[in-house]
C-alpha cells in the first residue's frame, strides 16, 4: 500500500513517516519543505506542495491508498486567526472524493470538537488564551471530516513530547474517560499508522495519552 502523509516534514508528520516506513508501507511525504527532509528510504517519495492548493493535493493523491493528515502551525501563528486546518481539510476532502481515495486518518488534539468540554476548569481559560484560535479551527476541521462521507478516524493527542514510543499509551474512546495528559509523538505516530488498515476506530475521535 502507498500512504500519503500530509505535513510530513516535521513533528508528528515526520514521526509518522518514519513509523509507516518501518511498518513496510510505501510513503509519499507531502509538505512545503518536503525536499529538505533528511530521511532517506527506497520506499519514500518526497513531494513538495501546499495542502491548501487543490492541484497540489490532487497530484499527491495519485495511486495512493490512504491519507494521514498531520498539519501543524508554529507558535507564532497562535496569536492571530488560524484557518490552515479547515482550509486545507476542505481541499483534502474534495480531492480525496474526486480521486476516490476513502481512508483518511487525521490528527487534531485534545480540546478540539466535543473533547473541549473535558478540559479541566482550571485549564480552560489559559487553554483558550493560548490555543483557542488554533483549536477553534481544529474543531472546524473535525466537522468537515465528519461530514465528508470518507472512512475517517480522528486522533486527539494530549500534550506532545519527544521521546520513544510507549507500549502502554491509552486510546480513550468513551467521552467519560477523556482527559488531558502527555504522550510522545512516536506513540501518536504508532496509532496513526495502525489505523491505515485497522477499522476499530472508524468514524471515531479518541483521545490519546500515556
UniProtKB/TrEMBL annotation:
UniProt xrefs under SUPFAM superfamilies: NAD(P)-binding Rossmann-fold domains (SSF51735)
Record-linked Pfam families: NAD_binding_10 (PF13460)
Record-linked InterPro entries: NAD(P)-bd_dom (IPR016040), NAD(P)-bd_dom_sf (IPR036291), Polyketide_Oxido-like (IPR051606)
Domain NAD(P)-binding: 7-198
GO terms for MF: biliverdin reductase [NAD(P)H] activity; riboflavin reductase (NADPH) activity
Gene3D superfamilies: NAD(P)-binding Rossmann-like Domain
Taxonomic superkingdom: Bacteria
Protein name: Putative NAD[P]-binding protein
Organism: Octadecabacter antarcticus 307
